[in-house]
Every structure is written in C-alpha cells, then in structure tokens.
C-alpha cells in the first residue's frame, strides 16, 4: 500500500474526509476508489459513495477477499444510513465471515454492529440483543466502543430501561471524546436528547400530560393497569395482553380506560370501535359480543361491568387505570413516527419496519404528501421520503415491533 493510500485511510479514520480526498481524488485504482467512496459517504453524497464502492469491488482482484469484504461492509453502512433496509443481509454475513477468517476483527465487529442496528430499526429487538451478547467491547477501538454503547443504549431505550440507557450513553460520550471524531460525538448527543424528548402522552381520569421515557418507565412500574396505545396492548406489571391484531377490542378498552372511573355510553363505544354514526339493534348486539370477548381477554386484570347507559372498567384490586398514547395522534402517525428521525426512508424500508405491505405504506405517503406533511426525493427505486423533525412528536422508542397501519 503506497503512502498516499495510507495517509488517506488515516484521514478517514480520524473523521477527515476532505483530507482523504485531497490524496486520492484523481486516482482510479481499487484502493483509491474504496477510500473515495467512504469519503463521499462521510460527506453525505450517498449515491456517489455507493457507486464508487461498487466500482472498487469490481476492481479488486479475486484474491483480494479482505478488501472486497470491507467494501461490502461500507456499502451496507451506506444502505443503513439511507434507510435502505432491504439490502441483502446474507452479503453482510458473508463479508463478516471473510473478515473474521482473515483476522480483521475490527471490521468484522463493525459488520455485526451494522446488522444489529438494522434489526433495531425494523423492530427485532430480541434478535439484536442476542447478537450483541456475542461481542466483547473491551478489545474495540474508541470509535467502535462508541458504536457498541450506542447500540446498548438503543436496546435499553426500546426496552424502556432508562438507567442502563443513560449509563451506556455516558460511556459512549467518553469513547467518542477519546476517538476525537465529531460525527460520533454528534450522534451520541442526538441519542441523549431522545431520552429527554416527549416519548408518550399520559391520559388518566380525563387529564393529559406529556411523558419523557423516564416517566413512561415509572408509570409501567407503578402498579397501575396500563393501556398502551403506542403498541396496542394492556399490561399490569410483567403481565401483558397484546391486542395489536384485534383493533376493535383495543378501541373498546382504550375508550373505557380514558373514561375510568366513569362509564362510557354504548353510543360512544359504537362510534369508537365501529365508526357507527347511527345505531340499531344489530350494532348493539355486536357490541355485546365484542364486550364479551374483551372480558375474556382481560379477565386477569379487570372486569367490564354493564351500567345503565353503557360499560365501565372495574380493575381487580386497588389500582388505577391509565392510557399511554403517542404525543401526537393522527392518521398515518406510525409513518410519521419513523420519518421523525430526520433521515430519508424508502417506502420498502417503511413497510419492513411497520410490518405492512409496501402498497399500504405508499398510499399513506401519497396522502401525507398531498397534505404537505412529507416530501419525496428521487425517482423510481431511488425515491426517498423524509420530513423535518416535528416539535413534540414521538420518536420510534415506543415502536419496538411491527404495528398495524391505517
């Protein structure tokens, strides 16, 4: 490796992409193409970076397996940043195995972190946590330790465990300062701000107030019966009943929980659960059936008692009933929650993260675009969607798994 390539690589490692380009900008050999691609990625020109890395992979010979594998890992990182979550995970796994086999532990670990971060974005927290357990941060460089702690914090935040999350972010901040890379420091600061931003809204006894993640954790540990409208479930302590696939039952229990300790009239329940503007005996019969199903689903938590004008929750034991909802609720809120991170998403990535069909997501995006809520850039498969972060809007912290979409 010549001196210019070595100097460019050191510049990239220290977070100086312009310094790297000064050394290799006019070269078209394979190592220079790879370094130019990484530099362009650091500067934010992701399409150009992807093109350069693919040229580098083709330029490296069949016996340069390590270099080709590193280019694959770099391209996977670009895909992650550009929210192209459909990139082939098998290619990254193969590159990681190649790097492991040739003793490049640092880049192999980086490949694992990319896979873990992708799993977090699409809501597969359990898989991400299992993969993280196979990594030992003690042998990592400061930059890699920063990434490790950010992943640890991300998992803890999605588990709603704020104390471990804050500890991990403090370790990440120390590692980022040691690495001396401004982009890493900015990423740690952004993750830290997420802990202090509104993550949910509490509805109890007819009153509402915003909650940060620490307060969400306190509510879940309070012993109250919690109706979680962010993830469509009902919980008390460690016992959880998911109603994500039963929207009518969830609409009923949420209406009852928001009114607790008062009751809710049959007309209001019919409107909330079925959208019925006019009711007849068939609607009332259907409501009785669904209330019976709700009683069966929640028998461990609460009874649902009939009153003169409707129904009311009667929780077992001396416990309160509260609702946790998104800070902002509107049509297509799940799509907006993902776009609120300020990154550009493809419709296929949004569909993967939400567990919905791409056509359903596309209809939601078209509706939001018509209302000037989101913007599209590019055409065809390169089309991306984004929106500026909205003040007070939820993050994806309370979207740990695929959710129903309107």
Summarize the structure.
The protein is α+β, with helices and mostly antiparallel strands and 406 residues long. It folds into 3 domains: 3-196, Alpha Horseshoe (Serine Threonine Protein Phosphatase 5, Tetratricopeptide repeat); 201-325, Winged helix-like DNA-binding domain superfamily/Winged helix DNA-binding domain (Arc Repressor Mutant, subunit A, Orthogonal Bundle); 333-398, Arc Repressor Mutant, subunit A (Orthogonal Bundle).
Q: Could you give the count of β-strands?
A: 11
The percent of residues in helical segments reads 55-70%
Given this structure, which CATH class of the largest domain is correct?
Mainly Alpha
Shape descriptor reads: elongated
Biggest sheet statistics: 6 strands, mixed
Order of helices and strands: HHHHHHHHHHHEEHEEEHEHHEEEHHHEE
Provide the CATH architecture of the largest domain.
Alpha Horseshoe
Provide an overview of this structure.
By secondary structure, the protein is of the alpha+beta class. The chain folds into three domains: 3-196, Tetratricopeptide repeat domain (Serine Threonine Protein Phosphatase 5, Tetratricopeptide repeat), CATH 1.25.40.10; 201-325, Winged helix-like DNA-binding domain superfamily/Winged helix DNA-binding domain (Arc Repressor Mutant, subunit A, Orthogonal Bundle), CATH 1.10.10; 333-398, Winged helix-like DNA-binding domain superfamily/Winged helix DNA-binding domain (Arc Repressor Mutant, subunit A), CATH 1.10.10. Helix content is 56%, strand content 11%. It contains 18 helices and eleven strands. It has helices at residues 3-13, 17-24, 30-43, 46-59, 65-81, 89-101, 105-121, 125-132, 142-158, 162-179, 182-196, 213-220, 247-259, 266-274, 281-297, 333-339, 347-354, 358-370, and strands at residues 200-204, 207-211, 225-228, 233-236, 239-242, 264-265, 302-306, 310-315, 321-325, 375-377, 384-386. Strand 7 (302-306) and strand 8 form a beta hairpin. Helix 3 packs parallel to helix 5. The longest helix is centred in the middle third of the chain and has 18 residues, at 162-179. It is elongated and about 85 Å long. The model is unreliable at 389-406 (pLDDT under 50).
């Amino acid at each position: 490796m010549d001196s210019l390539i070595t100097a460019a690589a050191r510049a990239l490692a220290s977070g100086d992409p312009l310094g790297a380009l000064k050394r290799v900008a006019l070269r078209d050999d394979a190592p220079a193409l790879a370094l130019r691609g990484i530099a362009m990625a650091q500067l934010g020109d992701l399409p150009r970076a992807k093109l350069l890395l693919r040229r580098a992979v083709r330029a490296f010979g069949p016996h340069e397996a390590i270099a080709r594998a590193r280019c694959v890992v770099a391209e996977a990182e670009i895909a992650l940043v550009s929210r192209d979550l459909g990139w082939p995970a098998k290619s990254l796994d193969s590159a990681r195995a190649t790097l492991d086999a040739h003793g490049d532990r640092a880049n192999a670990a980086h490949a694992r972190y990319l896979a873990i971060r992708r799993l977090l974005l699409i809501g597969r927290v359990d898989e991400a946590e299992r993969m993280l357990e196979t990594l030992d941060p003690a042998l990592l460089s400061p930059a890699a330790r920063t990434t490790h702690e950010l992943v640890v914090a991300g998992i803890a935040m999605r588990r709603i465990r704020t104390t471990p999350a804050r500890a991990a972010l403090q370790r990440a901040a120390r590692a980022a300062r040691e690495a001396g890379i401004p982009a890493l420091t900015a990423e740690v600061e952004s993750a830290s701000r997420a802990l202090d931003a509104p993550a949910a809204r509490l509805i109890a006894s007819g009153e509402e107030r915003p909650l940060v993640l620490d307060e969400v954790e306190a509510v879940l540990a309070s012993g109250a019966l919690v109706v979680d409208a962010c993830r469509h479930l009902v919980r008390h302590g460690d016992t959880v009943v998911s109603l994500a696939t039963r929207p009518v039952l969830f609409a009923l229990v949420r209406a009852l929980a928001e009114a607790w300790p008062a009751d809710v009239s049959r007309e209001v329940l019919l409107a909330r659960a079925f959208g019925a503007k006019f009711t007849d005996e068939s609607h009332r019969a259907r409501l009785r059936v669904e209330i019976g199903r709700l009683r069966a689903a929640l028998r461990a938590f609460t009874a649902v008692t009939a009153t003169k004008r409707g129904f009311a929750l009667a929780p077992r034991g001396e416990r309160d009933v509260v609702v946790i909802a998104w800070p902002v609720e509107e049509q297509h809120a799940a799509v907006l929650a993902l776009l609120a991170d300020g990154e550009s998403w493809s419709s296929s990535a949004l569909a993967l993260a939400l567990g919905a069909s791409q056509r359903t997501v596309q209809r939601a995006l078209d509706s939001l675009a018509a209302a000037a809520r989101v913007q599209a850039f590019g055409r065809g498969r390169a089309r991306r969607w984004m929106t500026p972060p909205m003040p007070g809007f939820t993050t994806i912290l309370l979207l740990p798994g695929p959710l129903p979409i309107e």
